[in-house]
């Protein structure tokens, strides 16, 4: 489910309409189970953020799947999404969380290593998640290193991403057998960045906040732990496509003034994701050489498509659109 604009705030009635949950139910979830922690205005009116809307929507969907709200209300949004998209039980998620083992990490970039060291006590960035971090000053030094061991987490910071950098970086990722790779960059051509992204590397501007960086590492740690609890392919399999191209085309052409062009944008994104999911599956069938890459791309695009289908349903319910 995509994030809503971070600057938005809602009264409880708006949250009720967006998440399709009665106000009385939201109040019970908040007071009895501490599901939300709204801010208050000077007039003591409660204000809820976009994450609260997402949480309310996920709690409703999970309760309909048989989860007791009392047992999942205090989980964060990431954990709620995992319960919903991967079909986990709350006990399996808890087991995975408590069994999360330290990650084998590799950091490329002196400045990034110093940043991680300075924030570990403030945010617990590596305190609980990675006790074995190998550090290289730059990519050239890392590539020249003779000792190669598999790593779970590869964090890289580059000033520029040139065409020559792409092949060098992909080669290093392949040889290090990194499970998850995050690249922070200052400048880079969109085509080069897209190539890296298509290869499964998370690409982000160096302006990423410490909190976002910490959250990314935390999610990786949890995903690693989930692999020991849930079979990988069973956990990552996306739900079948819900809406036809004709339905999405119809929604894209509906005129609405309340949410501007959100229905059109989400419908168009869904069409693109569905097409790319099909394309990745066709590549998987035709070319076994890069089977793992194409399998990953098909899974990721399928999961993204399923999340945007949920977003479309949220918009449709708010706008009164029949899907």
Which key features would you list for this structure?
Multidrug-efflux Transporter Regulator, Chain: A, Domain 2; 57% helix; single chain; alpha/beta; Rossmann fold; two-stranded antiparallel sheet; 323 residues; five-stranded parallel β-sheet; 7 strands; 15 helices; disordered N terminus; 3 domains; globular
Describe the structure in your own words:
The structure is a single chain. Mean pLDDT is 78; it is low at 1-7, 121-125, 127-131 and 231-236. The protein has helices spanning 12-19, 23-33, 50-64, 69-72, 77-86, 90-98, 110-123, 139-144, 163-176, 190-198, 210-226, 232-236, 245-252, 262-286, 291-319; strands spanning 39-40, 46-47, 104-108, 132-136, 153-161, 180-188, 202-205. It has 15 helices and seven strands. Helix 3 runs parallel beside helix 5 (77-86) and helix 6 crosses helix 11. The chain folds into three domains: 12-98, Multidrug-efflux Transporter Regulator, Chain: A, Domain 2 (Orthogonal Bundle), CATH 1.10.1660; 104-227, 3-Layer(aba) Sandwich (Rossmann fold), CATH 3.40.50; 238-319, no CATH class. The protein is an alpha/beta fold and 323 residues long.
